[in-house]
Design brief:
202 residues; alpha+beta; SMI1/KNR4-like; six-stranded antiparallel β-sheet; 7 helices
Length: 202
Amino acid sequence: MVSNIPILVQRLRDELVAHGQGAEAEYAPVAARTVDELAARFGLPTAYRRLLLALGQHSLGIVPGPFEKLVLHAAPELEQAQVGYRGSRLGDESFVAPHGWRRSWVVIAADAGDPYFLDVAKATAGGECPVYTAMRGTGTWEPIPAASSLEQFLRILTVWVRIVVPHHDPLNPEEPLDDAQARRLATEIERIDPAAAAHWAQ
């Protein structure tokens, strides 16, 4: 089966550059051995392994994300991204965060401290995996669907960059999209992944 992941990562990167972001995250390859070691350690599905290879050494940051800045972690940052969720410090996975966090959850991105994560226990036979998010500080980790697959996650992020990023005013970051833009965003995300649309609503 041919994967669209590398194409989708490049489209996201191109969209960021077109809107004045992401130029500092030009592609630099990451060693396949590094990704293989992460895949073995965290039980990563094939689609996410392809995503890490396509990202290379540098994370991608999106301003604004649903809250502040959404950062999609690259392979060199993935181990650090797990600290506080599965392990209290780098290299120590002796505990799992309390209040409902699961060992099968692997953090792949974050926005204002809220994690986006895979549930690798739900990986499909084809190597895909759903993406979830959850809010910090609520007393319990309640997973919210962010995308039904990694491919859909990348498509949603690209639409987000195309519609939301150009209208972001750093001097007035709380300014919402106007009604027409909000409807366009909702319509496009609904078309990509109805199950995740509620999370991205503005």
